[in-house]
Amino acid sequence: MKLSEDHPTEEVLERYLTEALPEGDAERVEEHLLVCHSCIDSAEQALAFMESLRSAFEYLPKARAAGSQALNE
Ligand SMILES: [Zn+2]
Hints:
Elements: H1 10-17, H2 23-35, H3 37-59, H4 61-66
Helix pairs in contact: 1-3
């Protein structure tokens, strides 16, 4: 298994960041992030995107209530 060449998809990264991954998968992503700068960049971008969504929702309570993919806090 070559962790450094097996990039998690954006979706997997997002699930990792929202702690939606099973423990074993989360560990694999974490180990990968230790050695892969491009995935750290992707994770940071995904995180910034999720943060901007989150703050947008805070200004728009109706949108938050209607959001089908609520972020777990
Ligand atoms: Zn990677």
